[in-house]
Amino acid sequence: LEICSFSGSKIYPSRGRTFIRGDGRTFRFLNSKTESLFHQRKNPRKFNWTVVFRKMHRKGISEEVAKKRTRRAVKYNRAIVGATWEDINARRNEKTEIRTAARAEAVAKAKAARKEEASKRKAARTSNPTAGQKFSKQQARGAQVKVQANSR
């Protein structure tokens, strides 16, 4: 028992035709109607008497299969590292004005800390003038420093 390449129906012995394409692929057809439609390059999905059409449009399914249940992802509200659930909820529910004020305060605090750090560095540089000088790796290891000739 073979199956028709176009309609998908069974071909019983001593029935049908065989077509072998140039690339060597064989096609078996139930009758001249299916063969003709195949050679016209018709789409078997568009003919409602073909097996492919019936499968696509769910025709002739004898017993109704119970619909598959899809598993829904359950959402949990839980804490993350460094914040309890109450903290997260409070942060979410607070008003935007409060949040922007807190952000501005934090920025001002960070700026003040940066300014203070810069002033400390400046003070250290002025008190120890040799600390900021650049020197080579050899000088750092303790090599003798060449004396610059000033006669020229």
Mean pLDDT across every amino acid position: 85
* Secondary structure category: mainly alpha
Number-wise, the strands total 4
> How many helical elements?
5
Beta-strand content: 5-15%
Helix fraction bin: 25-40%
- This entry's quaternary arrangement is single chain
| Alpha carbon gap, first and last residue | 110 Å
Q: Note poorly predicted spans.
A: none
Along the chain, the helix and strand elements come as: EEEEHHHHH
Q: Please state how the strands of the largest beta sheet are arranged side by side.
A: 1-2
From the alpha-carbon coordinates, what is the Rg to the nearest angstrom? 43 Å
Shape: elongated
Q: Could you give a short account of the major beta sheet?
A: 2 strands, antiparallel
Task: Chart the SSEs and their pairings.
Elements (H helix, E strand, L loop, with lengths): L1 E2 L6 E2 L5 E4 L5 E4 L2 H8 L11 H6 L28 H9 L2 H32 L9 H5 L11
Antiparallel strand pairs: 1-2, 3-4
What does this structure look like?
The chain has a two-stranded antiparallel sheet. Strands 3-4 form a two-stranded antiparallel ribbon. The chain is elongated, with a radius of gyration of 43 Å. It is 39% helix and 8% strand. It is mainly α.
Essential attributes:
152 residues; two-stranded antiparallel ribbon; 4 strands; 8% strand; elongated
